[in-house]
């Protein structure tokens, strides 16, 4: 009884718990803080990336035009006055523009200066003028104040990308040209207008004439075909493997292989496409068709895996219910299981599609890197796709392509955003069927 | 085959529930009845002693203690009610609860009989005609009937402790002896008008003899309930001899 | 007196327990497994899951217009046995059934027999209410539609209505047939599942713990419904609630570790079971 230890009351569990409480909370706080930091860091990088792309790219949606009073002389355009489209098309519109430009700068006499003056106008400007005239032949014989597409150097100068203080030798635009542009600007004859060319034209060597319409259509055709091929095949394969196939060594082997295929580098699929589709089956190269075939191979594992997970997550009670009222296994799947798994399957498929949309490497293998100016009109036309176009532009030396690269990235991101939105909407629509 | 069937002690039918509280509740119910049974035996013996030895205070004590048995029977009823409501007994449990409820009634009525004997003893005293009340053969006959009845009752209560068919069987076998002793006593009473008993006293003694015999019959009823619990067969209103034979045949 | 002797014979055996507990052949079921008017007859049914035997030589009849309840501790094989009766076990890999199970003299494990129409004849109600995620109407109409039981929309409407009426759900849902079946309460969902089952006019209805997910009121409604359905169907019900078995069934079968230990009138099983294991189980001494 004299032992002091006997007199102290036994330690209650709650005291021990309280003692450790502070440490536990500290650990929890640390973990939360770490998580918040990670998320913030991620957000910062995303914001930086977007800010960079947008800042670089937004100017590409505007293009510099020079307003010139152009005398659409009937003698030059349509000498015989028949308004024959062939004649109209053949006329020398460049001459008209140059004459108008010379009238603006009558003091320029020197041959070399004249050539410099002419270089302010884009080489594509006559084509645009021709389109204009051919669309409205009534203009012939009148003098119109028309906005003429400026050369990319002028465009860069107006947008402020060319440093006027740098030594003239380091600039692409000489002092004289700057003076002319300034004069035109002072007269209000220079303006930045919305860049429709970017969305309606295929690519070009000239930045001011380069558009993404070709790549966009190429991507669209490729994606549509990829979806049409890979979705039914993928879902069918998943359905068979998950619901019907006997569980044995062979199906195990197939499962392992499907999982492995999802991890195969995409360039391998490109090589496969080159060898099999182009080499063996003779599918024309650089077409959306061959691209879609390769993309199908690449997205199939993703779709199969996602679909199997979605099928697995359908409660077995639904299958039992259907079988219990006497539905055949196939009816059970198509009437009950598949509709319930569809949101998950769609999500997986759209993820696969999004990956296919952003894929470059395998397409380089099958010739999608070719320089194709024309906008593809079908699955069998030579085409390129958005990421490859971005890759090509990023590789070009002209300053004008820098902003166009960023703009194309913006368009690609918008495309992806629309796809994801579609995925969300589809999901919601199918899930609303309880 | 699970080992449960082999290992389970074949002894007590009220134990072994997964819910141990259930065991306790059944045990409590049975304890109440055993306590009642013991009291009834004590009461009977005391009442008969009061009658034979003409002990007024003893008779009063019996009457005083009688309500205790009634209270216990109320307790037993309440316990039965509670077990049925809370445990929904089935099979052997249901039989146990129902049988114990009935046994409680039998025991309580046996207690009433003891009190009646004590009351008759007092009645006898009021009619006292002087001299010793009970002559020797009568006294011995009462003693014998009392022994038989108490012995049967005690055994029946004991049979309840383990729902023992063998013990219940011996009670059935003792029935004839009880009836014999009762008849002998009645015969004696009907011819003993010589002993100076007034008719009222004779009637009182008849009542006592009848009460003792009834106590024995209650013991038989309890034994019937014991067999009902143990074998799941209601053996009331059956031919006793054939019943005894059948049970014997099966080794009890 | 004869009955007394007979029952006592068994009882003595059961209580002294030595002879029956040891080496009881697995097929020796206490009580009469047959009924006078059987709808389904099972003889010496063994069920294997891979190498594990889940059911050991069970013989049991299901009579016309009777409710047969199957009770027993978890894992005793009662659900497995129930699922054999409409070949629901076919969907489980490695499940093997031997012995004979006959529905009106037709062996349902016959090689040529298609389980799909069988399941229309032997309907099933599951533990968890599992209505299809479709409208109430569609839930009931689905079975008749895939089996082509009706010729036109009017007939189908009528069948849906009568099925829902039989399941005691019509008055509660008649104004919202187009609403999702999953929006109903648990008890209503289970009755919807019963309506769905009876819409394909089965002969036997199997119920696998149909009330285990329901509250007592809903349970009472289902039990009342089961009693009404007995007039037209044979019903086999697996339940964990002994009280429920006692309330709804005419015959009760007690399973223990894959053996059918005892079969008998429900009244007898719950007042005076013959086998020690049955008694221990229903009085709550194990399991």
Automatic annotation (TrEMBL), chain A:
Compartments it resides in: Cell inner membrane; Cell membrane
GO BP annotations listed: phosphate ion transmembrane transport
Keywords associated with the record: Cell membrane, Membrane, Transmembrane, Transmembrane helix, Transport
Top-level taxon of the source organism: Bacteria
Entry GO terms, CC: plasma membrane
One Gene Ontology molecular-function label: phosphate transmembrane transporter activity
CDD domains hit by this protein: TM_PBP2
Segments passing through the bilayer: 33-55, 220-241, 261-283, 290-311, 406-426
Bilayer topology: Multi-pass membrane protein
Domain ABC transmembrane type-1: start-end pairs: 216-423
Classification via NCBIfam families: 3a0107s02c
Sequence similarity: Belongs to the binding-protein-dependent transport system permease family. CysTW subfamily.
Protein name: Phosphate transport system permease protein PstA
Lineage of producing organism: Bacteria, Pseudomonadati, Pseudomonadota, Gammaproteobacteria, Chromatiales
Gene symbol of the encoding locus: pstA
TrEMBL record, chain B:
Keywords, ordered alphabetically: Phosphate transport, Transport
Pfam family, one: PhoU
BP terms from Gene Ontology: intracellular phosphate ion homeostasis; negative regulation of phosphate metabolic process; phosphate ion transport
InterPro entries: PhoU, PhoU-like_sf, PhoU_dom
All residue ranges annotated as the PhoU domain in the record: 33-120, 144-226
Keyword Nucleotide-binding: no
Keyword Transport (UniProt): yes
Domain of life: Bacteria
Family: Belongs to the PhoU family.
UniProt-recorded name of the protein: Phosphate signaling complex protein PhoU
Organism annotation: Allochromatium humboldtianum
Automatic annotation (TrEMBL), chain C:
One cellular-component annotation, GO: membrane
SUPFAM superfamilies hit by this protein: P-loop containing nucleoside triphosphate hydrolases (SSF52540)
Domain of life of the organism encoding this protein: Bacteria
GO BP annotations listed: phosphate ion transmembrane transport
Keyword Protein biosynthesis attributed: no
A molecular-function term among this protein's GO annotations: phosphate transmembrane transporter activity
Pfam families tied to this protein: ABC_tran
ABC transporter domain: residues covered: 40-282
Keyword Transport: yes
NCBIfam families in alphabetical order: 3a0107s01c2
Protein name: Phosphate ABC transporter ATP-binding protein
């Amino acid at each position: 009884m004299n032992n002091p230890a006997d007199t102290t009351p036994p330690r209650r569990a709650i005291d021990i718990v309280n003692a450790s409480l502070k440490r536990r909370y500290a650990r929890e706080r640390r973990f939360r803080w770490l998580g918040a930091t990670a998320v913030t860091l991620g957000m910062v990088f995303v914001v930086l990336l977007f800010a960079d792309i947008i800042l670089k790219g937004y100017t590409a949606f505007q293009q510099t035009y020079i307003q010139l009073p152009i005398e659409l002389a009937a003698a030059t355009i349509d000498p015989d006055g028949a308004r024959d489209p062939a004649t109209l098309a053949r006329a020398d519109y460049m001459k008209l523009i140059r004459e108008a430009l010379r009238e603006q700068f009558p003091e320029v006499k020197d041959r070399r200066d004249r050539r410099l003056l002419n270089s302010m106008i884009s080489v594509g400007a006559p084509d645009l003028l021709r389109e204009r005239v051919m669309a409205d032949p009534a203009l012939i014989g009148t003098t119109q104040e028309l906005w003429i597409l400026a050369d990319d150097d002028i465009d860069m100068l107006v947008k402020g990308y060319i440093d006027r203080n740098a030594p003239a030798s380091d600039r692409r635009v000489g002092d004289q040209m700057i003076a002319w542009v300034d004069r035109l600007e002072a007269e209000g004859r220079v303006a930045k207008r919305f860049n429709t060319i970017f969305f309606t034209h295929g690519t070009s060597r000239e930045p001011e004439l380069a558009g993404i319409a070709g790549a966009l259509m190429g991507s669209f055709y490729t994606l549509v075909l990829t979806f049409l091929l890979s979705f039914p095949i993928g879902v069918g394969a998943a359905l068979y493997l998950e619901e019907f196939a006997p569980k044995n060594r062979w199906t195990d082997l197939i499962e392992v292989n499907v999982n492995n295929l999802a991890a195969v580098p995409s360039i391998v699929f490109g090589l496969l496409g080159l060898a099999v589709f182009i080499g063996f089956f003779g599918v024309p190269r650089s077409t959306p068709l061959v691209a879609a075939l390769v993309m199908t191979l690449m997205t199939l594992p993703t779709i199969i895996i996602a679909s199997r997970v979605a099928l697995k997550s359908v409660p077995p009670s639904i299958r039992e219910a259907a079988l219990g009222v006497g539905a055949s296994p196939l009816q059970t799947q198509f009437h009950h299981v598949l509709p319930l798994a569809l949101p998950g399957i769609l999500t997986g498929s759209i993820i696969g599609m999004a990956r296919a949309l952003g894929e470059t490497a395998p397409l380089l293998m099958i010739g999608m890197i070719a320089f194709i100016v024309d906008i593809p009109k079908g699955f069998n036309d030579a085409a390129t796709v958005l990421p490859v176009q971005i890759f090509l532009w990023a590789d070009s030396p002209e300053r004008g392509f820098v902003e166009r690269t960023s703009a194309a990235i913006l368009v690609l991101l918008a495309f992806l955003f629309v796809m994801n939105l579609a995925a969300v909407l589809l999901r919601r629509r199918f899930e609303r069927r309880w | 085959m699970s080992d449960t069937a082999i290992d389970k002690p074949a002894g007590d039918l009220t134990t072994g529930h997964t819910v141990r509280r259930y065991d306790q509740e059944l045990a409590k119910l049975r304890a109440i009845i055993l306590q009642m049974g013991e009291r009834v035996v004590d009461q009977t013996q005391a009442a008969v002693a009061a009658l034979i030895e003409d002990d007024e205070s003893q008779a009063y004590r019996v009457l005083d203690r009688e309500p205790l048995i009634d209270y216990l029977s109320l307790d037993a009823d309440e316990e039965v009610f509670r077990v049925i409501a809370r445990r929904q007994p089935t099979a052997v449990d249901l039989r146990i609860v129902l049988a114990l409820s009935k046994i409680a009634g039998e025991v309580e009525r046996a207690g009433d009989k003891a009190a009646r004997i004590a009351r008759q003893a007092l009645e006898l005293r009021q009619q006292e005609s002087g001299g010793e009340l009970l002559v020797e053969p009568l006294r011995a006959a009462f003693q014998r009937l009392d022994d038989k009845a108490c012995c049967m009752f005690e055994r029946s209560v004991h049979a309840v402790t383990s729902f023992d068919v063998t013990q219940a069987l011996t009670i059935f076998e003792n029935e004839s002896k009880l009836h014999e002793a009762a008849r002998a006593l009645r015969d004696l009473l009907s011819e003993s008008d010589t002993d100076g008993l007034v008719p009222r006293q004779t009637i009182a003694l008849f009542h006592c003899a009848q009460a003792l015999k009834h106590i024995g019959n209650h013991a038989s009823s309890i034994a019937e309930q014991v067999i009902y619990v143990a074998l799941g067969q209601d053996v009331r209103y059956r031919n006793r001899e054939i019943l005894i034979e059948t049970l014997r045949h099966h080794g009890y | 007196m004869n009955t007394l002797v007979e029952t006592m014979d068994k009882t003595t055996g059961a209580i002294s327990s030595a002879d029956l507990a040891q080496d009881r052949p697995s097929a020796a079921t206490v009580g009469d497994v047959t009924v006078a008017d059987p709808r389904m007859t099972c003889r010496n049914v063994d069920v294997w899951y891979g190498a594990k035997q889940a059911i050991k030589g069970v013989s049991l009849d299901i009579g016309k217009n009777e409710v047969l309840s199957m009770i027993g501790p978890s894992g005793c094989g009662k659900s497995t046995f129930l699922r054999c009766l409409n070949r629901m076990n076919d969907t489980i890999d490695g499940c093997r059934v031997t012995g004979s199970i006959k529905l009106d003299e037709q062996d349902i494990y016959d090689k040529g027999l298609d389980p799909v129409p069988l399941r229309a004849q032997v309907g099933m109600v599951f533990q968890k209410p599992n209505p299809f995620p479709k409208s109430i109407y569609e839930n009931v109409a689905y079975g008749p539609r895939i089996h082509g039981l009706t010729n036109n929309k009017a007939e189908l409407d009528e069948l849906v209505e009568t099925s829902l009426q039989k399941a005691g759900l019509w008055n509660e849902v008649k104004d919202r047939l187009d609403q999702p079946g999953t929006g109903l309460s648990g008890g209503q969902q289970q009755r919807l599942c019963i309506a769905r089952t009876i819409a394909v006019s089965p002969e036997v209805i199997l119920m696998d713990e149909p009330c285990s997910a329901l509250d007592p009121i809903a349970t009472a409604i289902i039990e009342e419904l089961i009693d009404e359905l007995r007039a037209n169907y044979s019903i086999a019900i697996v339940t964990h609630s002994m009280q429920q078995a006692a309330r709804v069934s005419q015959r009760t079968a007690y399973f223990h570790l894959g053996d059918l230990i005892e079969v008998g009138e429900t009244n007898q099983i719950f007042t005076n079971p013959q086998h020690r294991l049955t008694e221990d189980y229903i009085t709550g001494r194990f399991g």
